[in-house]
Inverse folding.
């Protein structure tokens, strides 16, 4: 049977260590055509997550630069900017990580929801400057947003503040009459950045993202080699119903994309270079798809590895931080580069499509057998000086450029 056509959109965040300080771009991958289209946007930094409108014509590139960036994606090989709006206009903030990264589109593709500062807002695409404030979320820094099929309950991850650890998630009820009572917090064992909601049930899943640092410096953090958790949450009551936990050596650290297909969780592991698969019936057993690029890709990634090492050493005093480095290497399987940050299942259920941030690759695996059916090394990005002295970037196949920084992804059937 022929493959059902689809497109996967990836946010691009540049080559730096944690994806929170780099450039902002978007990549489209078409299957079965196996074609790529890449576009970057000047004046926007740290691209993080693409949110696709239901009509397949518009998208929002969530970022960490306090800007709403609306894109026209109808013509796949000509992704263009429609509008941008600074969120500082209607809610100021003093922490660079407090920004609109994830969005929720209404079915009409004319409006969407996003978190800005202390509140949840409802925006219209034709008037980004005047959103409706839906109420406070009561989190430190609302990050990923996912809502149930009725569009009533929003499950919210929390990135945390600049100078304090935070271990909580939130549930926002859009039908609660009092805006001040719409958000309810749930305390958990570690940081939760990312979450997912079941496609048919008012049930969500929140995943811990464990960090360690010194002196409450939550800007220069490292991955924590500790036990991880996944919480199943009943959204109407904001109560945890089931808990899944793993030992520290379990390969599921630094989660990013979370997918639910055929009542099964698929979780991108940026730390452990793979995809974790957990059936939801018992919420116990698992499979792990290790996504390691071909040998030549790993062999010629020295430039990116040195860049990553420099970023790590610039954040910590090396002589006194070997414990952080060893914990990170335990998590990554002694690899220096990042792993899988993007994971989606094809609409027909045949494939798992992954994006490897550090090794700069896109790969397609058979969902049942885990056999790799396709792998592509992406172009690298290099800065050059053009006429008039202006800097610009171009894409190159040379390993002496820097990887694009594949981060969150969204898939749409065609």
């Amino acid at each position: 049977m022929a493959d059902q056509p689809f497109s996967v959109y990836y946010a691009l965040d540049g080559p730096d260590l944690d994806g929170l300080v780099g450039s902002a771009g978007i990549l489209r991958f078409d299957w079965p055509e196996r074609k790529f289209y890449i576009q970057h946007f000047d004046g926007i930094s740290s691209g993080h997550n693409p949110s696709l409108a239901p009509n397949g014509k518009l998208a929002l590139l969530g970022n960490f630069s306090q800007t709403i960036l609306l894109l026209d994606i109808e013509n796949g090989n000509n992704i263009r900017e429609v509008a941008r709006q600074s969120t500082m206009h209607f809610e100021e903030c003093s922490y660079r990580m407090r920004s609109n990264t994830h969005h929720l589109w209404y079915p009409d593709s004319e409006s969407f929801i996003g978190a800005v500062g202390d509140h949840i807002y409802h925006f219209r695409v034709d008037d980004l400057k005047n959103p409706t404030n839906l109420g406070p979320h009561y989190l430190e820094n609302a990050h990923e947003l996912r809502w149930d099929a009725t569009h009533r309950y929003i499950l919210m991850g929390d990135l945390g503040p600049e100078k304090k650890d935070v271990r909580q998630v939130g549930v926002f009820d859009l039908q609660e009459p009092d805006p001040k009572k719409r958000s309810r917090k749930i305390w958990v064992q570690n940081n939760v950045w990312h979450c997912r909601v079941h496609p048919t049930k008012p049930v969500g899943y929140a995943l811990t993202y464990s960090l360690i640092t010194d002196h409450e410096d939550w800007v220069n953090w490292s991955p924590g080699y500790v036990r991880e958790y996944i919480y199943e949450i009943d959204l109407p009551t904001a109560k945890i119903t089931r808990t899944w936990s793993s030992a520290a050596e379990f390969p599921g650290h630094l989660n990013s994309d979370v997918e639910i297909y055929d009542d099964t969780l698929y979780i991108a592991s940026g730390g452990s270079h793979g995809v974790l698969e957990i059936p939801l019936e018992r919420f116990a057993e698992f499979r792990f798809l290790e996504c390691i690029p071909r040998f030549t890709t790993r062999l010629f990634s020295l430039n990116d590895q040195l860049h990553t090492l420099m970023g790590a050493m610039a954040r910590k005093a090396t002589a006194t931080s070997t414990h952080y480095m060893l914990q990170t290497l335990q998590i990554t399987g002694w690899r220096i580069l990042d792993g899988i940050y993007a994971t989606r299942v094809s609409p027909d259920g045949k494939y798992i499509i992954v994006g490897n941030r550090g090794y700069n690759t896109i790969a397609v695996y058979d969902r049942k057998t885990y056999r790799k059916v396709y792998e592509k090394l992406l172009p690298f990005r290099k800065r050059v000086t053009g006429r008039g002295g202006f800097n610009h970037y171009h894409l190159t196949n040379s390993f002496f450029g820097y990887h694009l920084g594949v981060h969150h992804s969204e898939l749409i059937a065609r």
